[in-house]
Amino acid sequence: MQNGSTNNPIQKIAVFASGAGSNARKLIEYFGTEAFPKHPSIQVGLIVSNKKTAGVLNIAAEFQVPTLIIEKQPFFEGDGYVGALKDVQINFIVLAGFLWKIPESLIKAFPQKIVNIHPALLPKYGGKGMYGNFVHEAVIANKETESGITIHYVDEHYDHGAHLFQATCPVLPEDTAETLANRIHSLEHRHYAEEVEKAISKT
């Protein structure tokens, strides 16, 4: 495999995550890494987190993926770590349970090259504060019969960018936030890597 050659350049993904990292694991298993190559032209090259204790960092260690711990001041008031990402040849950014809003500096540096997955059918149940079980609790409280996932490009607003993909699942009368979350996670794990692959192929 000619990683980084001009004939077969590798597209390197930075996965941004704040939590346990189950979606990050699925992305790594699908695309591989420099230490464990799998995909012919895409690999996870960096795990980025805003939490030093995030479980995703253990996954990064397991697969020998370099990590970057970011801090608020340089992220929001500096260059958004654009320089650090460019230094390791990152081409594409995938948000996988990352809870900070992406700054304009990063969006401008990676136009149409940042995607997010949201655990609801946007434009419903999106926006600031709508993440994790907060989303599922709102869906259940409003007696929705259907929920799902939305994979979308990231712009300057929460959960606002153009949609790439949606998948649905039922909301059952007996559902709790936890049982609905499990169904949503299954959709995320089934579809995210493939849709990321399609998005990268368009760049």
Overall SS class: alpha/beta
**Radius of gyration computed on alpha carbons:** 17 Å
Second rung of CATH, namely the architecture of the largest domain: 3-Layer(aba) Sandwich
Indicate the low-confidence ranges by residue numbers. Answer: 1-6
Shape: globular
pLDDT averaged over residues: 94
Instruction: Please work out how many helical segments DSSP would assign.
Output: 7
Q: Quick one: how many beta strands?
A: 7
Distance separating the two termini = 21 Å
How would you describe this structure to a colleague?
- With 203 residues, the protein is of the alpha/beta class.
- The chain folds into two domains: 1-111, Formyl transferase, N-terminal domain (Rossmann fold), CATH 3.40.50.170; 117-203, 3-Layer(aba) Sandwich (Rossmann fold).
- 33% of the residues lie in helices and 21% in strands.
- The protein has helices at residues 22-31, 56-62, 72-76, 82-87, 104-109, 133-141, 177-201; strands spanning 11-16, 42-49, 67-69, 92-95, 114-118, 146-153, 163-170.
- The protein has a seven-stranded mixed sheet, covered by helices on one side.
- Helix 1 (22-31) packs parallel to helix 7 and helix 6 crosses helix 7.
Keywords:
disordered N terminus, 203 residues, 33% helix, Rossmann fold, 7 helices, alpha/beta
Question: SSE layout and pairings?
Answer:
Layout: E1 11-16, H1 22-31, E2 42-49, H2 56-62, E3 67-69, H3 72-76, H4 82-87, E4 92-95, H5 104-109, E5 114-118, H6 133-141, E6 146-153, E7 163-170, H7 177-201
Parallel strand pairs: 1-2, 1-4, 2-3, 4-5
Antiparallel strand pairs: 5-6, 6-7
